[in-house]
Structure formats: structure tokens, C-alpha cells
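Recall that a protein's primary structure is simply its ordered list of amino acids. Everything else, from secondary elements to tertiary packing, is in principle encoded there. The following example makes that idea concrete.
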Amino acid sequence: MSAPLILTAYPLSANFEQAARDMLGNGATTVTIAQLRSGGNIGLLRQLWSIRGNPIVLPVEEENSAALLPVLTLLAACTRSRAICVVHPDLHCESVSR
């Protein structure tokens, strides 16, 4: 089983990221869309397909960032992960289907 991967559109605050990592356990890593796009659009798709994090975690640090969930969910669906979940501001985790 691979380690959880936190996929976000922008860097998270240190406190929220640490709380999410504590909830997910050891080995969780964070990656931003900008980091994935460094190789262009084709590189983005290749990197997404190579991700096997389990689960892919989509953090919603503030209610305003929930507007990005459809985009993040689409990107997470392009990975090989078997599970996708959303972590809400109150740190409850909700499973999302592909």
C-alpha cells in the first residue's frame, strides 16, 4: 500500500497541513498543481498517471476553496489511486467516488 498524497491547488497553512498529516499517519506527502505542471500539460498527465498515493487527499482548508474541488477531483481521478477523500476545514474526511 502506498502512502497518502495530499493534492492541493495552493500551499496549505502549516497548521492545517500538519493536522491533516497527523490524521493521515506517517508518510503523507503534499504536492501542488503547480509542481505537477512544471513539465507542461503532457507532463502533468504523465505525473498524475504515475501517482499511486492511497488515498489521494483533497484538502479544503477554507469554505472558499471548496470551489476548486471539481478540478481537484478530476485531477485525482487521473491517478492510479484506489481512493479519493476530501478533508474539510473541521478535519472530517469524506470519501469521493470517481
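Residues 14-24 form the longest helix (11 residues). The two ends are 19 Å apart (CA to CA).
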